[in-house]
Design brief:
The protein is an alpha+beta fold. Helix content is 46%, strand content 23%. The protein is built from four helices and three strands. Strands 1-3-2 form a three-stranded antiparallel beta sheet. This is Magnesium transporter.
């Protein structure tokens, strides 16, 4: 999958990686990204030059979905778990440089130190919010609609192909 922020396929060597507005003529508009993806897939299956196609999200929104309430137990449990993973990693690296058979000591020391530091950092971070954000969430950037653009020399062909796709029933899930 390509990075949507680099625009590497349309960049010339030596040019800076700056955001650029999309170019092309609209050949389709869809309410979900999945529908826009299906349209571009249909174009690709029809031997359309998809390297000249762009999917543009219009009317962008940042959606934050609340996933749960934060409590001291959840905060400390998460801190201990993340600290344990990091401590285990450090302990395993230290264990690789110890004499044969004595690797378990550094692994346990790293694990213990990781849990302790994870607990402390999680507690300090949560206490510093003073109850202003007692919930966990996941953020996502979504669009109100997704336009499919094609370069002008292929726009008419693209519209015709997408009109044929619109006549087909969507695949069942």
């Amino acid at each position: 999958m390509s990075n949507p922020f680099t625009g590497a396929s349309r960049q010339t060597p030596g040019t800076p990686n700056l955001p650029t507005p999309p170019t092309g003529w609209p050949i389709g508009s869809y309410s979900t990204y999945e529908e826009a993806q299906r349209a571009v897939d249909h174009l690709a299956d029809s031997d359309f030059p998809v390297q000249e196609v762009t999917i543009v999200g219009v009317d962008l929104m940042l959606v934050e979905r609340v996933t749960g309430r934060l409590t001291w137990g959840r905060v400390l449990g998460g801190g201990a778990a993340s600290g344990a993973w990091f401590g285990l990693f450090v302990g395993l690296i230290m264990g690789m440089f110890t004499p044969q058979g004595s690797w378990i000591g550094p692994v346990l020391a790293g694990l213990g130190a990781g849990v302790l530091f994870g607990l402390v950092f999680a507690a300090v971070g949560y206490a510093s919010t003073r109850g202003r954000r007692d919930f966990s969430s996941a953020s996502q950037l979504v669009a109100g609609r997704y336009d499919v653009l094609a370069q002008p020399r292929h726009a008419e062909q693209g519209r015709d192909l997408l009109a044929k796709l619109a006549m087909k029933p969507p695949p069942s899930q």
